[in-house]
Amino acid sequence: MLQGPHVLGHDKPLIRLSFTSCVVGTVSLPLLGLITCIFISSVFHFQDSTDTHCKVTNYLPSISASISLSPECHIWRFCIGLHSAPRFLVAVAYFNFYKGRFSTRFLEWLLSCLNFLCAITENFGLLLLTYVSSNETYLVHKEGFVLFIASSVIHMVLTCRLWLVIKKYSLIPEDVKSFHWKIRCLILNIAFCCLAAYFYWKHNMYCEQGSYTFFALFEYCVVFSNMAFHLTAFWDFKSREMVVISPEEGKDF
Prior knowledge:
Blueprint: E1 2-3, E2 12-18, H1 19-44, H2 46-50, H3 63-66, H4 72-101, H5 106-131, H6 138-169, H7 173-206, H8 211-231, H9 233-236, E3 241-246
Antiparallel strand pairs: 1-3, 2-3
């Protein structure tokens, strides 16, 4: 459960972890996993990971290619699988946070519900594209990727809209800082998405040398900016703790 600085009641805490540590750990898993997969693919599987139907020289593997080979796919699946449960918990924590803030504002409450749904589908899309590689079932992998990108962008837009209201009435410096960084990450993410889509289209249409390399580069930037956006939870729940509790023996329920 998510608690403030102290645990209420008489239940015995088994695990006590600051929410900021949980956030950093959750974001670090896919970050380190992705960097590791790209490194291994570039060094040991360069030809296979950069080969496309155009048969032109490419210098960087795409993310899909990086996580489809072995052992890269196993590393990526391990990192994403381990980080997915905390991601669902963070989504619930944000939903409860918004519900408390916007209990009397119908529009913002409605947006927070939609935001929660997008957070869930974003995580589900990431799991889908992770455990169904492009080498296995390309169509399912592609649909998972589209679901992840669409949900993540909508989620970021809705989050910034909600935090615009929070910043307006908040006197806490961390709230203002969090909002500004969310806006920056959102703008960068959308820009990187557009650039990645442009170079992907250019590569498929004209098979120009270097287009796929730029697509892969901006694809990395899309994911990194998404991770940076989620890392802003560091300020949003700075005084909170993740606590696993054990009820006292003999306690009636």
